[in-house]
Amino acid sequence: TGYDIIFFWVSKMIFTSLYFKGQVPFQDVLLHGLIRDAQGRKMSKSLGNGIDPLEVIEHYGADTLRWSLLNGTTLGNDSRYYEEKIEAARNFANKLWNAARFVLMNLGDFQAEEIDIEHNLELADRWILSRVNHVTKEVSHFLDTYNFGEAMRSLYEFIWNEYCDWYIEIAKSRLYGEDEAAQRTAKSVLAYVLEQTLRLLHPFMPFITEEIWQHLPQTGESIMIAPWPIYKEELRIKRRSRPWV
């Protein structure tokens, strides 16, 4: 709830529930900041600086609006709404969409194999698996502590900088090469990381992640009911075994 209605709404709910039921209606209250305009003014009818979310959704999409309103926020602090944030969120959604299209195009009818972490993995494979594993742990922690802005920052940096700009690019030589075993490994890792990433991203961008999920091989009926990713200690690369450090 917004901090401006604690006494008008939250406390009223608590007192009413205690009076009629003899118990509090909830144990936790998440206080979020207010959304202000680009000049830092509170949005109000009198100022005429409010926005129609349906118009934004029509132009940019619902996922883009959701992402832009949450990204970069901290608990209890106000945030500003401006067009550049919406455009940045749209660019991120496009980046994810294009990366997923590339992976799906190269997967074709390929049925992803279980990844053997002891054999057949190149250094790049081990690294990206370790990174998505770390991001899983990080995002889970941030969500458990209601730190949504940090969870989104972690996902953004991993998806854009590490998975899209780094691993997909380095995997292309194997995808287009003649070594079938190396090609299968690259495809399996690409599919695994994409699938895990979609699960982590789904709370923030439910529509685009569901659409991509429906085209992945060997996935369940809906990403909404898919199990949440878990941290796997065996995927962690210990510092002493990092030859590039």
Can you characterise this structure?
The chain is an all-alpha fold. The chain has two domains: about 1-30, no CATH class; about 70-240, Isoleucyl-tRNA Synthetase, Domain 1 (Orthogonal Bundle). It is built from eight helices and two strands, in the order αβααβααααα. It has helices at about 5-20, 55-60, 60-70, 85-105, 125-145, 150-175, 180-200, 205-215; strands at about 35, 80. It has a two-stranded parallel ribbon. Helix 5 (about 125-145) packs parallel to helix 7 (about 180-200) and helix 7 (about 180-200) packs antiparallel against helix 8 (about 205-215). The protein is elongated, with a radius of gyration of 22 Å. About 20% of the residues are buried.
Give the overall form: elongated
What is the terminal separation in angstroms?
45 Å
Q: Per DSSP, what share of the residues sits in E-state strands of 2 or more residues?
A: under 5%
Question: What do we call the CATH homologous superfamily of the largest domain?
Answer: Isoleucyl-tRNA Synthetase, Domain 1
CATH architecture of the largest domain: Orthogonal Bundle
